[in-house]
Design a protein that fits this description.
alpha/beta, about 35% helix, about 15% strand, 6 strands
């Protein structure tokens, strides 16, 4: 019988709109109890994570021996730095969205996720192969801007890749 891989995303891993600061020990304990999960993704649901906090929590959860990832919002303009911190700490999964779309219904001030195309360009520029067609992704971002009728939060689709 084939098994379906299970990914568990732990919302509000660094901060909660209702409870405030989140104790990293509580998140790590929860992840440890999620024994059936094949992957653990730590979510900065409201965009309050900072790179050092991301690095420490990813390292802490990585000792459980399962792939760890980060779901990052760019509400306070720390999302991309947090992505690099997550990678440095051993994360193998990074969530992002086209153009930086998204938000959180529980935190109306939270902005979207980090933009897939912006993150992809940074990764590829620093030699981390992703296998994703950046030009096609940029085309989707440009198309989506016309569909939505307003600029997206991502930057690269306007600036174009370089070189």
């Amino acid at each position: 019988m084939a098994t379906v891989p299970v990914t568990v995303t732990v919302s509000c891993s660094w901060g909660c709109p209702f409870e405030g600061e989140v104790d990293p020990a509580v998140v790590a304990d929860l992840c440890e109890r999620l024994a059936a999960a094949d992957e653990l993704v730590l979510a900065d649901t409201i965009g309050v994570a900072t790179p050092r906090r991301v690095e420490r929590l990813v390292e802490r959860v990585s000792i459980l021996g399962r792939p760890v990832g980060a779901h990052l919002h760019n509400t306070r303009n720390t999302g991309y730095a947090c992505a690099w911190a997550a990678l440095a700490a051993g994360a193998t999964i990074l969530d992002a969205s086209i153009g930086g779309l998204g938000g959180c219904p529980f935190s109306p001030q939270a902005t979207g996720n980090i933009a897939t195309e912006d993150l992809l360009w940074q990764l590829e520029r620093d030699g981390i192969a992703t296998g994703i067609d950046l030009d096609a992704l940029l085309g989707v971002s440009r198309w989506l801007e016309t569909v939505l009728g307003h600029p997206l939060d991502g930057q690269l689709y306007r600036a174009a890749p370089w070189p």
